[in-house]
Amino acid sequence: MSSNAFDRSKILAARDERDRFLAEHYASPILEEHRDDFAGAAYYEPDARFVFVGSFQEAATTVTVPSSTGAVSAYHSVGVVRITIESTPYTLTVLDDGDGGAFLAFADGTNGDTTYGGGRYVGVETGDGGEAIIDFNRAANPYCVYDDEYSCPLPPAGNTITSRIEAGERMYRSAAV
């Protein structure tokens, strides 16, 4: 794992792949009747300032996580990541993505303005020695942004970043509405 994680071309390629999935895949959360009008998600420009290297402390626990539908569920946490953003230290709960990876459900100062009010998701890359990399350029909307029939986990208590994370996916606005 390299602390120089910013790679603009890889970020853009991942965004193209996500847009193709959203537009074409049978499991896309975008309603079938809106897919012809889908021209891709809106994103902030990739910016190296939104890649953070921190420390990861493994700790398997169960945390209570609210959802977009008002339900509360138990989620498996794989640990916490510690990062500093604009001189403010954060200890954020890292959730198990169910496929062997880890992610943050997080809120930040852009929620309800330029991003979904309920927060976004971003992968956490962990490595040997307790290092963690979070590239907020890869932050994505939960599926409930595209279809309110989905029940999406929202950030657990403590996963709010007071700064504006102007990176990753912006709020989706359907051209069909």
Key structural traits:
single chain; 177 residues; mainly beta; 1 helix; 10% helix
Can you offer a commentary on this structure?
This protein is mainly β. Helix content is about 10%, strand content about 30%. The chain has one helix and seven strands, in the order H-E-E-E-E-E-E-E. The protein has one helix at about 10-25; strands spanning about 50-65, 70-85, 90-95, 100-105, 120-125, 125, 130-135. Strand 6 and strand 7 form a beta hairpin. The longest helix has 17 residues, at about 10-25. It is globular. It starts with 7 loop residues before the first helix and ends in a 42-residue tail after the last strand. The model has no long low-confidence stretch (mean pLDDT about 95).
- Helical/strand content category: mainly beta
Count the E strands: 7
Helix share bin: under 10%
> What order do the SSEs take from the amino end to the carboxyl end, as H and E?
HEEEEEEE
Please give the count of helices: 1
N- to C-terminal separation?
A: 43 Å
Spans with pLDDT under 50 lasting ≥5 residues?
none
Which range does the strand content fall in? 25-35%
Largest sheet: 7 strands, antiparallel
Average pLDDT figure? 93
Rg on CA atoms, Å: 16 Å
Q: Write down the overall geometry.
A: globular
Strand order of the largest sheet: 5-4-3-2-1-7-6
